[in-house]
Amino acid sequence: MNSVVLIGRLTKDPELRYISESQKAVASFSIAVDRPFTKDKADFLNIVVFGKPAENCANYLTKGRLVGVQGRIQTDSYTAQNGEKKYKTEIIADRVEFLEWGDKQQRSGVNAELPKGGAQIPEGFQTLDDDDEIPF
Questions:
Q1: pLDDT tens for residues 120-131?
Q2: DSSP three-state, residue 35
Q3: pLDDT digits (tens, 9 = 90+) for 28-38
């Protein structure tokens, strides 16, 4: 079984391209995933996503956004121009969840547009004050 689930922040904006034969969209980006029980250490993983989800990633994700990725690990090897054998490992995403939302045009900072608590409030909703008397 080859299955992986990751949560991390984009290290740069997604790059979108199209496969020439099929015109299928392909987006690639990398995320930084914090290592458990260590401070100031992260793993940087390359993500590849295909089809409509790839276009959504390119249109709505920016550097610094928090995402969840579900997919599989894929390794490949190739020979470089100098004859050296190279290896690459990527996560082929079946699903990408946007865990932070915001206007893509606002690039001043990820949390700059977020209200108290870190979540963005959709139009028509309001925040609730902390209430210790909630029965559940």
A1: 556 666 565 655
A2: coil
A3: 999 999 998 88
The CA angle 11-75-71, to the nearest 5 degrees, is: 60
What token pair was written down for 25?
Answer: 């969209």
Q: Which fold has domain 4-98?
A: OB fold (Dihydrolipoamide Acetyltransferase, E2P) (2.40.50)
Rounded Cα–Cα distance for residues 83 and 133 (Å): 69
Instruction: Write down the pTM of the prediction.
Output: 0.71
Distance CA 122, CA 9 (A): 22
Distance between CA 4 and CA 83 in Å, rounded?
Answer: 32
What residues does each domain of the chain span?
Answer: 4-98
